[in-house]
Amino acid sequence: MATVLDTVRAFFAQNAYVIDAENAGDVVARETLLDRAMGPGRTRKSSEKIRRGRLPADGLALVARDPSGHVIGTIRLWNIEAGVTAEGHAVSALLLGPLAVDPDQEGKGVGGALMRAAIQEAARREHGAILLVGDPEYYERFGFFADRVQHLVMPGPFERRRFLGLELKAGWLAGAAGMIVPTGRKLSSPSYLKAA
């Protein structure tokens, strides 16, 4: 007969996950997870225009893995220019997204753990701010607010109330205004495509 301790151990063994750096072997699992969690229209979003053809910021592509090593969550951050200051200086920042968790794993804290890990790693790497498009009801708990990005705009349509920012360095976004544009490393074409 199982004891209470056995039941607790079984619960944690079943619901355990680790946050890890994404690797090349995670690509198919990540894309399958994103399709499943976000639907087929995910590639038409304004945020996707910024990410298309780019690589995530160094060290800021993370996954959550279950005890078997399967990807059950993903988060990526991308280098951007968040407008310019009144003096004309470009404001470097990060764009977060997408954040997705396997629907079978929702409610287990996976998304929150990915958010906290991504924010901590971005701060450790000395980035000044993170922007995203998402539900304020979820992201405000992590410090993201619309007033931080009130003078910035996304390319293409977006909902102003869902456009949020978090300053990792106080005052980083003060006075920033203009269009969000990508600045990160571009994907390189495979050599077999260059030869064609």
Write a structural description.
This protein has helices spanning 4-15, 27-38, 46-51, 110-124, 136-139, 191-195; strands at 18-21, 61-65, 71-84, 90-96, 100-101, 129-133, 152-153, 163-167, 177-182. The model is unreliable at 7-12 and 191-196 (pLDDT under 50). It is globular. Strands 1, 2, 3, 4, 5, 6, 7, 8 and 9 form a nine-stranded mixed beta sheet that branches. It is α+β, with helices and mostly antiparallel strands and 196 residues long. The protein has one domain (16-186): 3-Layer(aba) Sandwich (Aminopeptidase). 28% of the residues lie in helices and 26% in strands. The longest helix is centred in the middle third of the chain and has 15 residues, at 110-124.
Helix coverage percent of residues?
Answer: 25-40%
Intertermini distance? 66 Å
Indicate the mean pLDDT.
88
Q: What is the H/E order?
A: HEHHEEEEHEHEEEH
Structural class: alpha+beta
Q: Which homologous superfamily in CATH is the superfamily?
A: Gcn5-related N-acetyltransferase (GNAT)
CATH topology name: Aminopeptidase
What would CATH call the class? Answer: Alpha Beta
Largest sheet: 9 strands, mixed
Secondary structure layout:
Elements: H1 4-15, E1 18-21, H2 27-38, H3 46-51, E2 61-65, E3 71-84, E4 90-96, E5 100-101, H4 110-124, E6 129-133, H5 136-139, E7 152-153, E8 163-167, E9 177-182, H6 191-195
Parallel strand pairs: 4-6, 7-9
Antiparallel strand pairs: 1-2, 2-3, 3-4, 3-5, 3-9, 6-8
Key structural traits:
alpha+beta; 6 helices; 196 residues; nine-stranded mixed β-sheet; disordered C terminus; Aminopeptidase; 28% helix
